[in-house]
Amino acid sequence: MIRIGVRALWTPFFILAAAAAVLAAGPALAESKSTTYEGKGVRIGRGTAHTVVRTDADGKPASIGIVFTPGMLDGLPKAAKGANPDFPYLLPMPTKGPKTVVDHVVVNWESAGHPPSRVYDVPHFDFHFYLVSRAARMKVAFKSENDSGDPGQQPPAELVPVGYILPPGTAVPQMGVHAIDPSASEFRNQPFTATFIYGFYNKQQSFLEPMVSLAYLKSKPSFSAPVPRPASYTKPGTYPSTYGVRYDAGRNVYEVTLEELK
Q: What's the pTM value of the predicted model, to 2 decimals?
């Protein structure tokens, strides 16, 4: 009788302790539901690169990015004099996991940079996150690079972040027209390190583009910045509020990411 009584006395405490343990583990269990999905690796330079989608505890996309090894920054091709200095590398999105607004990614190695001079004419990477299909992108065509200043290519104001402009000279076939932020530091006599560009074609958003200099990447940065957001988007879905350019010493990889999707 005494033993039964002691067991009965302690049972509620064991139940409470177990309940407390479950509650304490709740955040950890929720965090463990976060998942990383990776796309197929592609050889670039002496390294590799692949896309990545990370989810939150609810299984929704939290970030979209590109992961690459340090070797990608070495052994890169150089254009012959007078040849196109742009070298594109197609990166497929992960085949598993939740779908995002990004259809595919193209990393463009700009071996000699591109206009405008004294701004982006240094070796750098254009990380294009395309919102359109590859087939649609391949149909993007212009009469000249100055078509970006044509009224027929100017998107509605609600699709363009406040302060961004589409200047002449930024229309590129199989890409689109590039909207830039003239208040960015590289337009104020500062060396170009990293910036964020929006792309359009036929008045619709077609890509999101972090652009990063080779020299800045080799400095092994840990950088993040807000992404100016337009009032609305052409394609329904969640879009970045920040972007990051980081070297992870523990894993010995770089990441360029679109973050805080909402």
A: 0.87
